[in-house]
Amino acid sequence: MTMAPGPLESRRIDVNADFTAEELSFESEVREFLSAEFPGEYRDKVDANIRLSKDELVNWQKILYRKGWAAPNWPQEYGGTGWSATQKYIFATEMGLIGAPEPVPFGMKMVAPVIMAYGSDEQKQRFLPDILESNVWWCQGYSEPNAGSDLASLRTTALRDGDSYVVNGQKTWTTLGQYADWIFCLVRTDPNAPKKQAGISFLLIDMNTPGVTLRPIKLVDGSFEVNEVFFEDVRVPADQLVGEENQGWTYAKFLLGNERNGIAQVGRTKLRLSEIKERAKASGLLDDALFAARLAEAENDILALELTQMRVASSSQGGKPNPASSVLKLRGSQLQQLATELMLEVAGPDALPFEAGEAITSPEWAQHSAPRYLNYRKTSIYGGSNEVQRTIIASTILGL
Q1: Burial (CB count <10 Å: 0-12, 13-18, 19+), residue 274
Q2: 399: left (phi over 0), alpha (psi -120 to 50) or beta
Q3: Which of 140, 29, 47 is nearest to 101 (CA)?
Q4: Which end of the chain, N or C, is more open, meaning fewer C-beta atoms within 10 Å of its C-beta?
Q5: Lowest mean pLDDT among 1-10, 47-56, 61-70, 199-208
Q6: Strand, coil or helix: what is 154?
Q7: How far is the CA of 53 from the CAs of 58, 179, 301, in angstroms?
């Protein structure tokens, strides 16, 4: 494996935050914990742009769980940390700088907050402990072949039959669904509702239920990250409906606000930009004035986004995501894509081989730069396309 090109301190792009003595002490605690507990072999893979396996992700999540740090954004009553907005920012930043992945979001950051806000007491007792401990892997059933950015056009139906719902339809682009034990789905429970946003419900479905079929989709980078999921007369107990029937659109918007905050990936992009600078310096590309200016502009942009994220985090209280999450999603995805473009430029011709391993002189990080560039075209689409985010910003924030 290729080791990190430089010490952790060289990866820091500071925002000159005026931390208190207690916050600085907490920052040191987080750094020491991550340095000691994030496995070195995982960090090597991250530095080489190699995905961690399911077992590696779950193992890391359980390490965080044992520390009590698995769910910083959860209320303390459900196992959260009770951290301030600044502490959450510090933790996310340090995680990003060392390359430690945050817990897979579908359970921890998506369905869990919905269950907390709208689920029954029985659902909270049944599902939240296993999500917190990473015993169960969740995936998301939102997009459909003809309902992606226009999510309200979804057609998957769930018709009540006694104590069950009978689900028929299809979901697509289901990220990491091949690992999932459960899927949370938006389904149409009232096909005759007057508005397409009405008549939608939020349903929890065991992936092992008869009638559920999963088919992987091969992506342009050669990976099988996403899937199609088919439902054929799938019987789902009615007590797995979250909240009220036909109110799922409200829950979906709540979830998407949380998802868009996470998509920003400020810490991860800061790490990538620091790696780009180190590798560009080693290759001599940093001496190119045009490239150096592009990199400096990207660093300034990520600092601006980081400050915006801190403001959004501090104002998103009471379980109500800030509409500015659309700004984070829009700009965050753009900067993630820019980072992959810059890394590809640094790699140059060494980016052409794919999975050649150590048989050639092209370093492993360079071999993975082109697939990563291709994979990250997705960030401007998922979580609501960037065109949709611009519309939300114009109407909700700017009042246009």
Answers
A1: buried
A2: left
A3: 47
A4: C
A5: 1-10
A6: coil
A7: 9, 10, 31
Q: Which two tokens stand for residue 31?
A: 């750094």
Query: How far apart are the C-alpha atoms of 54 and 52, rounded to whole Å?
Result: 7
Residue partners of 252: CB distance under 8 A and separation at least 6: 142, 151, 186, 200, 202
- 39: helix, strand or coil: coil
CA-angle at 28, arms to 5 and 66, nearest 5°: 95
Backbone angles phi, psi at 207, to 5 degrees: -65, -15
The kind and range of the H/E element at 241 are strand 241-242
Q: Is residue 102 annotated as a catalytic residue, yes or no? A: no
What is the pLDDT at residue 135? Answer: 96
Nearest alpha-carbon partner for 277 in 334, 331, 350, 339: 339
CA distance 95 to 102: 7
Summarize the confidence of residues 254-264 as an average pLDDT: 68
Spatial CB neighbours of 330, under 8 Å, sequence gap ≥ 6: 386, 389, 390, 393
Strand partners, 182: 138, 206
Catalytic hit among 27, 102, 259, 364: 259
Report the interhelical angle of 325-347 vs 248-263 (nearest 10°).
Answer: 40
Q: With H, G, I as helix, E, B as strand and everything else as coil, classify residue 165.
A: strand
The H-assigned helical ranges of 145-288 are 248-263, 266-283
For residue 389, pLDDT beyond 90: no
Q: For residues 252 and 272, what is the distance between their CA atoms, to the nearest angstrom? A: 31
> 237 or 86: which carries more pLDDT confidence?
237
